[in-house]
Design brief:
By secondary structure, this protein is an alpha+beta fold. It is built from 1 helix and 14 strands. The termini are far apart.
Length: about 170
């Protein structure tokens, strides 16, 4: 029995009582070993990628509670934009863009609300809530336009930043 090591995985290859009968069988055995290595590597990568998925920034942090007219939702901050919908989920790295005469309201997991005015562009850079202490740490980037944010009274001290191209506003305690 031969053993192949791929990362942390051990793949055992058993010869099933056959002896090598020449160069053709040796080539077949090597081809089979390569296929096993490729298969084991693919399985390892799939398991690794699926375990990393929650860390990729797609964590839901809120939802749209109101959408008026044309509001674009850029999931992960990347095009193509999708129309925002009431009860549509909002995640870290998502972008929201409102057009003329349109607006959006979002409610986050800690009951913070954000209203995005017409002709505005906002990205949720970070949003974490410590369930034990109730402390919120959030960062939003406002590229254009106006936002109104209401942060409810919390048991922990919030660390809430709103960044613009020319300034940074923070809410603490």
């Amino acid at each position: 029995m031969d053993a192949l090591y791929i990362g942390l995985m051990k793949v055992e290859v058993q010869q099933a009582g056959r002896q090598r009968e020449g160069p053709l069988n040796l080539q077949k055995e090597r081809l089979m070993e390569r296929k096993l290595i490729i298969l084991a590597t693919a399985i390892f990568l799939l398991v690794f990628a699926s375990s990393m998925a929650p860390m990729a920034g797609a964590e839901e942090v809120g939802s749209f509670t109101q959408v008026v007219k044309t509001v674009d939702h850029l999931k992960g901050g990347k095009p193509p934009a999708q129309p925002a919908k009431v009860d549509g989920k909002v995640a870290i790295k998502d972008g929201v863009e409102t057009h003329a005469d349109s607006r959006a309201q979002m409610k986050f997991v800690d009951n913070t609300t954000m209203i995005v005015a017409p002709k505005s562009k906002v990205t949720i850079e970070e949003y974490m809530v410590d369930r034990k202490t109730g402390k919120t740490q959030a960062a939003m980037q406002v590229f254009q336009g106006l936002v109104r944010t209401v942060v409810p009274e919390q048991s922990g001290n919030p660390n809430f930043l709103i960044k613009t191209t020319t300034s940074i506003m923070g809410i603490r305690g």
